[in-house]
Amino acid sequence: MRIDILCKPGQPEACQGTVENVRQALDVLGVEAEVHQFSDSRKMIDNRIYVVPALLIDDEVRIAGRVPEVKEIVNFIVERPRYLRDVAKVA
């Protein structure tokens, strides 16, 4: 699973709340994921994101313009097909 957090160039500190909430959500679920933080206007334009912070899970925009709560991030991760497939193999 890949999680991308997009910020405005030159203002990565604005996304710290999102990064912390993503880490907490991953700890709650016990899931490993690649977490990347981007401050790249090109990536924002490619994903049609005009407000930050933005959260992308597996290249799908989930939240833009506000810091998501841990509970919301957990719900986004749980509904992903990759997560459901991994859980099914374990059970």
Describe the protein in words.
With 91 residues, the protein is of the alpha+beta class. It has a single domain, classed as 3-Layer(aba) Sandwich (Glutaredoxin). Helix content is 43%, strand content 21%. The chain has four helices and four strands; from the N terminus they run E-H-E-H-E-E-H-H. Strands 2-1-3-4 form a four-stranded mixed sheet, with helices on one face. Strand 1, helix 1 and strand 2 (34-38) form a beta-alpha-beta unit. Helix 1 (16-29) packs across helix 3 (70-78). The chain is globular. The two termini are 19 Å apart. The mean pLDDT is 85.
Summed up, what is this model?
The protein has a four-stranded mixed β-sheet with strand order 2-1-3-4, covered by helices on one side. The chain contains four helices and four strands; from the N terminus they run E-H-E-H-E-E-H-H.
Keywords:
Glutaredoxin; single chain; globular; 91 residues; four-stranded mixed sheet; alpha+beta
